[in-house]
Specification:
By secondary structure, this protein is mainly beta. Helix content is 4%, strand content 44%. The protein has 2 helices and 20 strands.
Length: 271
């Protein structure tokens, strides 16, 4: 489906939903300058804030294509919506982890507490270009951004980040992580604002992973079976000030199968 939209210029919020289909593809192209400002795909079944985009005044060609049937949202309609609401609602309940890989370069849909994770995710490309590591470059992840308390310096600040609510519809939460064995660094799954799962990791095991361990993401998995059908949140906690004791995470998504790297899980608590 293709439609036309006249915009007088400025910032817009882009919202998407694939409805009762598994995915959608979309694009927004200026008719006057023939520039494509938004182009991509999404598997978010229910309404989801996608990104902010600044568009100059002109008429736009807006295209939306749906994929195969199989979406799990009760609202069956797929759409691409443009409006001036450029912030994801904090009380939304999503069908999957919203902004789990921080692909927009912002913490949209996540709540920050304390200075530890900064004001935006860290760009792998920027970190590599500026030498934002102490020995080997970042490795083990092919995405663009990650949340971390590593500030490209020698000190780390405490803080945490908490995801939007999402409904558990698969038995495992998979993600990428870098973390030393530290009681002050861990990942939680919250149900009713209470930790239902708490996990500590050690990806710094030099003897097992080699000298690049402090900068290489490892696969991690958390069990969600006991939380099936419930609204939960992810919280990443860092309360340490110790040198080099930082945590980095990205790629949160639910899965039917776990993908954890052997040997990194230090402690798992479930309730």
């Amino acid at each position: 489906m293709t439609d036309y939209c006249l915009w007088h210029g400025g910032l817009l919020g882009v919202w998407v939903a694939s409805g009762d289909t598994k995915s959608i593809s979309y694009s927004i192209r200026g008719l006057k300058n023939n520039i494509t400002y938004v182009n991509g795909s999404s598997t978010y079944s229910c309404v989801t804030f996608l990104q902010n985009v600044s568009l100059p005044a002109q008429t736009y060609n807006v295209t939306l294509r749906t994929g195969l049937p199989g979406g799990n949202c009760t609202d069956k309609y797929a759409f691409l919506k443009l409006n001036t609401t450029t912030t994801a609602p904090s009380n939304a309940l999503y069908s999957q982890v919203y902004n789990g890989n921080f692909s927009t370069g912002e913490y949209n849909g996540w709540t920050l507490s304390g200075p530890g994770f900064g004001t935006a995710p860290l760009s792998i490309a920027k970190a590599d270009a500026e030498g934002c590591y102490q020995s080997a470059p970042w490795a083990g992840y092919n995405g663009s951004y990650f949340a971390t308390t590593f500030n490209c310096g020698l000190s780390n600040s405490p803080g945490n980040i908490t995801s939007s609510l999402f409904t558990v519809n698969k038995p495992f939460l998979n993600f990428k992580i870098i973390s030393p064995e530290d009681a002050s660094l861990y990942v939680e799954v919250l149900y009713n604002n209470t930790p239902a799962v708490i996990a500590h990791y050690n990806t710094y095991n030099i003897s097992q992973f080699g000298a690049t361990a402090p900068y290489t993401f490892r696969n991690a998995s958390l069990p969600l079976i006991s939380l099936a059908g419930k609204p939960v949140q992810i919280r990443v906690v860092a309360t340490t000030l110790k040198h080099h004791s930082y945590i980095a995470v990205t790629g949160f998504h639910m899965s039917n199968t776990p993908s954890s790297t052997p040997g990194i899980l230090v402690n798992l608590t479930t309730s």
